[in-house]
Amino acid sequence: MNTPASATTPERILQQLDWQVVRRLDGQLQGDYRSLFYGYGVDFSDLREYQPEDDIRYMDWNVTARMDAPYVRQYIEDREVTAWFLLDLSPSVDFGTGDNQILKRNVLINFVATLARLLTRHGNRVGAVIYTGRVEKTIPAGGGRLQVLRLIHELVTQPRLRSAPATDLSPLLMTGLNLIKRRSLIFVVSDFMSLPGWDKPLGLLSQKHDVLAIRLTDPLEFELPDLGSIVLEDSETGEQLYVDTHDGQFRHRFQQAGYQWEEELSQIFKRCKVDSLRLGTDEDMVRAIVRFAKSRQKVRR
């Protein structure tokens, strides 16, 4: 479901998502969201010796050094979850192609609304940090349906920027690192088209929290159709480039650059120990989320 979120009210968006996305997720995941939300809201319980399937993020290095053997911390899950959305609304997310002209911003809004709805209806709390080339706004964590509507309202009323300084995700991630004290579930939602250096704060964030990277994409970012001579414009700087898409070699180089960028991102997420979900403007969100949940479930076994 990819409703053009900016074209309707928060209440209407939530109603559509409840009927078209949340109900389908309930059916396909059978109400079991542990595979998707694994690892959040935990309190320290005990120590035990490390086993091969253990997550090394729970390694207690001080005890390991004293005992001359690897030890990990054990945790008890809390009933209440606090989730945070670190949201990139820089100009590059206002890009989208296809018959319905769905923007990456629309996908972001629908994803946040869906996950916030799933979490809050079970008594959990959600908050958000909005980035627009700078950290624009922080929405404190809260619960209930009104909190979901507030998140949607803030997102659909956030102005689209025609231009902005080059995106740097580091301030967004550092804000999350400094703001969120208690272990939480954190969704970083972005296309990750950023100046370099953001991988370091992402890695620090994942040491303290369960971090999921939600990558927004559009098919045209990977493959150019043969449209003849066109002008490509950088959505953030406004810089324009005249290209001839009749040139098969140019289209091939463009495609290879897209796939190389995809591989580089995958390596960053792997190095930072962050699970990632790719959400395209041309994808069915329910199928993508179910696929992601099942992949996390396999890893945790």
How are the secondary structure elements laid out?
Blueprint: H1 10-29, H2 34-37, E1 42-49, H3 61-67, E2 71-77, E3 82-88, H4 104-120, E4 125-131, E5 135-143, H5 145-156, H6 170-179, E6 185-190, H7 199-208, E7 210-217, E8 229-233, E9 240-244, H8 248-271, E10 275-280, H9 285-300
Parallel strand pairs: 3-4, 3-6, 6-7, 7-10
Antiparallel strand pairs: 1-2, 4-5, 8-9
Helix pairs in contact: 1-4, 1-5, 1-9, 4-5, 6-7
Question: What do you see in this structure?
Answer:
- By secondary structure, the protein is α/β, with parallel strands linked by helices.
- The protein has 2 domains: 5-39 and 78-219 and 275-300, Rossmann fold (3-Layer(aba) Sandwich), CATH 3.40.50; 42-76, no CATH class.
- The chain is built from 9 helices and 10 strands.
- The strands form 3 sheets. The protein has a 6-stranded mixed beta sheet with strand order 5-4-3-6-7-10, sandwiched between helices.
- Strand 4 (125-131) and strand 5 (135-143) form a beta hairpin.
- Helix 4 (104-120) runs antiparallel to helix 5.
- The longest helix has 24 residues, at 248-271.
- It is globular, with a radius of gyration of 20 Å.
- The two termini are 30 Å apart.
